[in-house]
């Protein structure tokens, strides 16, 4: 299988990320020396994508901890770790992965503190190992998502030789540790020779589709066509698209899904064009603490993302803008199901598999 | 009433148009000396909008005819006029206005040729006057469209104090001789103090909404918010939009409407969000020669419109694009009606008012 792009490079306490702001013009890796670097890179969207945000956050803490002389006590170590994690969680509000990763790490800290047979140096090593494991875990999850998703879509379209899939935003190697979620499913379909064409939306205003997804698709020679967000319905009608597959920044307990702005309308349009609508997300994107999508905080982004492309003004001076980064797709529109590393579930059937 | 922007200036054989490619950075008028200049300006989208295309085409021919020494015979004059008009019709394929204007002018030529009491110089003058009248006629039509549309929307929302309207692309002073079609209706609602807010879509890939409509709305201090095309459904839901009003490049006899790409999906989304969907268009945009939207030619535009903003590359090199300039909205989705200078009609009720 062809190597996918690797946007997060980590080895022995050295972390580098691909600066996605410079794509597609330039492929430049920048070093992340500490949690503060990671926080800034996430906020500025040099790295984005719910899984990738959590991984870069966790790895940046691993980098810091490796350099750190072990504190006097495990309590002090855990207080420090929690403080850093709390800060990382504030970098962007909508994706839940960093928050869930932080909660898991804090739980580990508590266990290690309670375990009298572990000393502070060993505790620090365990925390570092736990944080470092997020990278490999995510790739394994994504490959499982790809397999589960592709086989579900093939099963539901058994009479069709090849499938036409639409996707939104970037959910590929650049949004994850590698392989991708929704784009992982598309990769698996392509590997199985079942992909006719993937239609990727531009994904305004930040162009994650045209800059990042298109970059991955060209790189891997997957048959692909770029469309503007305004062309989604026309494309569904003209090309008879079989399924829409998107990622998730946070899935609520009932299956309501927050994802990149524009996802909700793709779900409405998919329904009216008889295309299945799937969300592909690891369980680390599912927030069982909130009952439904109404409680998901939606980040509002700067207006300049809409009014300028680089230094070029593309909107009239003085115009008011509305720039939510995400929207919520109600569970009932997720007609295909939610594709996870544990299988494909109906939106209301997630909890038993937690 | 506040003066609207004037994008087409014509007086005594002198024609100037606002170069819309330079908006919003710069307001620059360029002279149009002849039909060839007009053809190029239309093709390059220095002027766009179905009514404006026809007006600039007609006026450019008036400019040429005024300079021309009258030919020897009326037949020769008419042959020349027809040749020029045929060329103008080829500038862009989807809008029908230039074609209908050309047909009307050719009919006038035939009448003048058949009328033995008219000499060639008088015929030339009559043709010039006919062509010059398109400017004032269009403004009058647009003001009537504005009045009819606003009163219909107010009537259908009688219980609401102020209305929230969404529009797509640019259908204002910049797309017409002045005032506008869909934007004319919005202007009339604003004048009647019934407009709460207009949401204008960016209208990718050419950004007619963010560059042109936003420019007009800011200029006239109409309360407005710019949204990306991907935000339409989220905005309809969040702001409870009452109606979507768009223009038309060509309306078929059954009411199917070709308009800027993205219109079709707004109509689907309006239906699922209980917003009325209106098309605002003069009868000069209605093509009774074609029974339905299947026969409307859809222009495909260059991929560079999607891959670059000015010199900045916004899409990965090598990605395939689909860039239709227009799509067709089926008549049944035009739930509000078609707003014309003669009144607001159900899509299937246009023919009797022809």
UniProtKB/TrEMBL annotation, chains A, B:
Signal peptide: none annotated. InterPro entries: IF-2B-related, IF-M1Pi, IF_2B-like_C, Initiation_fac_2B_a/b/d, M1Pi_N, NagB/RpiA_transferase-like. One of its GO terms (biological process) is L-methionine salvage from methylthioadenosine. It comes from the Eukaryota. The active site is at 249 (proton donor). GO terms for molecular function: S-methyl-5-thioribose-1-phosphate isomerase activity. Keywords: Amino-acid biosynthesis, Cytoplasm, Isomerase, Methionine biosynthesis, Nucleus. It catalyses: 5-(methylsulfanyl)-alpha-D-ribose 1-phosphate = 5-(methylsulfanyl)-D-ribulose 1-phosphate. One of its GO terms (cellular component) is cytoplasm. The record marks 169 as: Transition state stabilizer. It is an enzyme of class 5 (isomerase). Pathway: Amino-acid biosynthesis; L-methionine biosynthesis via salvage pathway; L-methionine from S-methyl-5-thio-alpha-D-ribose 1-phosphate: step 1/6. It holds the Pfam family IF-2B. Its EC number is 5.3.1.23. NCBIfam families: eIF-2B_rel (TIGR00524), PRK05720.1 (NF004326), salvage_mtnA (TIGR00512). Belongs to the eIF-2B alpha/beta/delta subunits family. MtnA subfamily. This is Methylthioribose-1-phosphate isomerase. It comes from Daphnia similis.
